[in-house]
Specification:
single chain; 109 residues; alpha+beta; Metallo-beta-lactamase, Chain A; 6 strands; 23% strand
Length: 109
């Protein structure tokens, strides 16, 4: 696959067609202000970046926003995916994604 040239910024809900794979942009701030994830709806594959990973979720970085992170994780707790590929660590399934999101939400209740 050839690298893409940036022609504009992406927004929540935008679709990126990679020729056979369409990724939907999900704006999920909180961990950092501009955090996004990419969802391939056809396969249920989530590329979550740093918003969620298999470990203690960090919300105390200089630009973190706990209220925004909470909203983002509420969204992820309801998302129907088959697999999540985080920016750090190993991939995990829908059950683990929901466990991680719900554990954070309980901790921040």
């Amino acid at each position: 696959m050839e690298p893409l040239t940036l022609k504009r910024t992406i927004d929540d809900g935008d679709r990126i067609n990679l020729g056979g794979h369409v990724l939907t942009v999900l704006h999920l701030p909180g961990h950092t202000p501009g955090s996004i994830a990419l969802l391939e709806e056809r396969s249920g594959t989530l590329y979550s970046g740093d918003i969620v990973y298999d470990g203690a979720l960090i919300d105390d970085l200089p630009n973190s926003d706990v209220a925004a992170y909470r909203r983002s994780l509420e969204f992820l707790a309801d998302l129907d995916v088959s697999v999540a590929h985080p920016g750090h660590g190993h991939s995990f399934d829908r059950t683990r994604l929901h466990q991680l999101a719900e554990a954070y939400l309980r901790r921040r209740a």
